[in-house]
Amino acid sequence: MKKNLIINSEICDARKIKEEHYAGYEQIMLNAEILLVNDHSKEVFHRLPLTENVEIILEVEEDAEFSTVNGDYEITGGMAVKKNSVLLVNGNLRIGQGTQELLKQYKTIQVNGSIRCPRSMAAFLDNIQVNGATVMIPDDCIELKDDFEMDSYFHLRAKENGVYFANKRVKILDTKIDTELLKKKNVHFITKSVLTREELIPEVIGMFDENTELQVVPVGYAYVKEDAVLNEALVAKYGNTLYIDGSLTLDKNSTPWLEKIEQLYVAGDVSLLSSQVEAFRSLEAEYKELVIVKGKMVKNTPLLTVDRKMLELAEDGVTVKNCARLNIKKDVLPETILEKLQIINCASVQCSPEQKSAVQMVGKHIASISDGENKGESGGILGTLKNLAESKMINAEKYSL
Question: Is pLDDT of 385 > 50?
Answer without folding.
Answer: no
